[in-house]
Amino acid sequence: MTYADNEIKRVYWPIKGVARMTNESESTLRFWEDEGIIGDIPRKTNGDRTYKLKEIEYIEKAQYLIRRMGFGIPGVQQAIKVGYVEDIIKFHKKRVTS
Question: What pLDDT is recorded for position 95?
Fold first, then answer.
């Protein structure tokens, strides 16, 4: 079994692994959690964060809004609040590819 196979079968990832996968620093991930961008990350009894696929998908959406579209933290928070994150990303991707 390869490393990639192990990663796919994994149920949760520690912050270090998620930082590596998403190319974001651990401090950025903690900041986004504190600001409500990626939600509250579940923790083990020892306090270590345990990211599941759902949280990694939130990170990818936040990356798109912030890195590709130039949203600031308040803009991302507002998009989350009104529930338009997916619509905004879909609309932007459609415009970019047209």
Answer: 86
